[in-house]
Design a protein that fits this description.
Layout (H helix, E strand, L loop, with lengths): L7 H20 L5 H28 L2 H21 L9 H26 L7 H32 L1 H9 L4 H4 L1 H21 L7 H8 L4 H33 L18
Helix pairs in contact: 1-2, 3-4, 3-5, 4-5, 4-10, 5-8, 5-10, 8-10, 9-10
Subcellular location: Membrane
InterPro entries: UPF0014_fam
Family: Belongs to the UPF0014 family.
Length: about 270
């Protein structure tokens, strides 16, 4: 089956629907019409630029250019993790926690998938590396952001209970164990929901794109399964790393709770 190419008119019709939704938002005074239009404009500019960059990368297959793009993706994802937290860590920790956790989980799993599972040669073929890393980074970013936000917010709210446990002689790991478990669980809920409903409630984006591009549905399902499993592993390992390092940062070497290492609430 040949791929049906989209014209500017086709995209214009779809964009008109977003404008219609923004208009309804203004009529109903929902207060999100402007945000909706800005988000649509941002996605248009970002995806068009990405399309042009990928076209260049696909033509050259330069390892240095690909490495530069992956680190830009990581840097932006690290900023988004920090920006989504109500109480972030002060200083460089606020940025480094999410970025280093995503680097360890997403990059490692992407390399494993390219070299061991897919066995593409060379392993840095941008047609495989960039989409795979992008999906892993995007989903891992959400998981880590939710987990860290849950950790810092609940630690602040339950600070008196934590300090009481410390006064009773508990180690810092015991004093915050319940909060860490809840934070990890919250970080994994999105991917668990995605796997649970895939194929019944929702048709995942990658599978949909492959079917629209002409791939056999069964092969598209296999690739989608691979991606879901990799995302689950990436989200889990990334959240685990971020929660372990973040919770350690909340206590000093004398086992004292250090909430002064968190910034004030955004609200």
């Amino acid at each position: 089956m040949d791929l049906v190419l989209l014209s500017p008119l086709d995209l214009g019709i779809a964009a008109a629907l977003v404008c219609l939704l923004a208009g309804l938002s203004w009529m109903l005074r929902l207060g999100i019409g402007r945000q909706l239009l800005i988000a649509a404009a941002r996605s248009t500019v970002q995806l068009m630029i990405l399309g042009m960059i990928l076209k260049t990368l696909f033509a050259q297959t330069s390892l240095w250019l690909i490495a530069a793009m992956t680190f830009v993706m990581l840097a932006v994802a690290g900023y988004e993790v920090m920006a989504r937290q109500q109480r972030r860590f002060r200083g460089g920790w606020g940025y480094a926690l999410g970025t280093s956790s995503m680097f360890l989980s997403s990059f490692t799993i992407t390399l494993l998938a390219l070299i061991v599972i897919i066995q593409v040669k060379p392993w840095y073929q941008p047609q495989y590396l960039i989409p795979l890393l992008g999906m892993l980074l995007g989903n891992t970013m959400s998981g880590i952001a939710i987990a860290l936000d849950n950790l810092t917010r609940n630690t602040w709210e339950q600070r008196h209970a934590i300090e009481a446990r410390l006064m009773l002689g508990h180690e810092w790991q015991q004093a915050i164990a319940g909060i860490r478990r809840d934070a990890l669980r919250s970080g994994l809920i999105p991917i668990i929901n995605a796997m649970t409903t895939a194929g019944i409630v929702s048709l995942p984006g990658m599978m949909t794109g492959q079917i629209l591009g002409g791939s056999p549905p069964l092969e598209a399902a296999k690739y989608q399964l691979l991606i879901l499993f990799l995302i689950a592993a990436g989200s889990g390992l990334g959240s685990l790393t971020a929660i372990w390092a973040g919770s350690r940062r909340l206590f000093d070497e004398r086992q004292r709770l250090r909430l002064d290492r968190l910034s004030a609430s955004k609200r």
